[in-house]
Amino acid sequence: MKSIRSINVVRFEEINSSGARVVILNRPTKLNPINYEMVSKILTTVERYEYDPAVSCIILKANGKAFSAGGDVVSVICSSLAGHWSYPMQFYKKMLMASYLLATFKKPVVSLIHGLVMGGGAGLSMQTMFRVVTEKTVFAMPEASIGLFADVGASYYLSRLPGSFGEYLALTGARVDGPEMVACGLASHFVPSKSIHLLEKAICEQLLSSSTASNISAIIGRFSQTPMLKQDSVFKRLETVINKCFSRNTVEDILSSLENEVTSGAEKWIKDAYRSMKSASPTSLKVTLKSIREGRRQNLEQCLFREFFISGHMVRGTVNRDFYEGSRALLFDKDKKPRWNPPSLELVTEEIVNRFFEDMDDPDLGPLRLPRRSHDVITAKL
Question: Residues in domain Enoyl-CoA hydratase/isomerase (predicted)?
């Protein structure tokens, strides 16, 4: 028997016969951007699910053609410009908490990722136990183009992709499809879109309340396929080009390496990567690279704490206001002519970059508290 709670921006379905709980992002006309109300409801409800013995697993999905276009940047910008800067940081806190909760959930979580998934939407889904994609799934992290950085756990999961593929995705905002997501490890399974509803039905109907990850894996295995990469897939260029260019020590060296490829008659995707980085915020590129590289040697908790610090500086504009300028140019005025400050990579000094990684002395904001996973509550103060 199925019951439905909440008919607003996020829906919760309870499959009482199997103990499955379905969490549905429900802003389809706007491509499901995640706002404060959505993440608050997800966090509160999923926390309850974890300790409810009647709950066997969670299915995370979305209504519409997109899984999620990311966090609701427009609401963040509008609130900040109106003087309510604490609202976006409270929202961001909850995003990090929800990301951590789903990533470390004590019961199986199955993300059915159909359509576009970016930013905060990726942060909620990319670290769950099962990440099912289709031929219509598209992943991207374009934050540097609006003066932000790859966040909500991205410095953890992108830094663990093969070679320098994580740096490539974070610095260029390049899009990868479902088969590429499976090949690089972003996704765990590929299921044709025509079978997604059948898979969900099978999980909801065939599980027992004592279901295990192996039970769910077996069910998904009946529907999953081994996808074929397209001939022009960028992941096929990992060893020959991506690692060579994106393993360089600095953003300047990466761009120089890409420029050499371009002048040598490179493929279109290399030219696109070069143009994307040249148009992005120089500061965001350097912050992103440092964040990914630090993430490679840190655990998830450390990555989320660091991302909390960086985001605080970007929202407060304590170092520069590239986040607001990039949002103006791409989301509001849409002139696509951001005036970055500093305007070039050579003017973004190491001192400037390091300031984004420092603590902020702001007693009004309070600490980031991640869900309890040991005897002590894990906290970090911004």
Answer: 21-357
